[in-house]
Design a protein that fits this description.
alpha+beta; four-stranded antiparallel sheet; HPr family phosphocarrier protein; HPr-like
């Protein structure tokens, strides 16, 4: 398992198109990817769970990936969320 903690840079957080783009990107990987904020953990491949995070700019997210392509997945997801 690999993990990273990032700070959201988008003022709109993980709503709408951004959440959809994240889940579609995460679904391309075989590994499990989890996003955690405060006391809530979401499957990065489930758009409803991701949108429930209500992430906003400045919020810290913990990203965990475990499985075959975990390192690549973590790098891509981190880049997507901090772009």
């Amino acid at each position: 398992m690999v993990e990273a903690t990032i700070e959201m840079s988008s003022p709109h957080g993980l709503q709408g198109r951004r959440a959809d783009r994240l889940t579609k990107t995460a679904s391309q990987f075989e590994c499990n990817i989890l996003l955690s904020s405060n006391d809530y953990t979401a499957n990065a491949k489930n758009v409803k769970e991701v949108m429930h995070l209500s992430s906003r700019a400045g919020l810290r997210l913990r990203i965990q990936a475990s499985g075959v392509d975990e390192s690549v997945a973590l790098r891509v997801i981190c880049a997507l969320l901090t772009d």
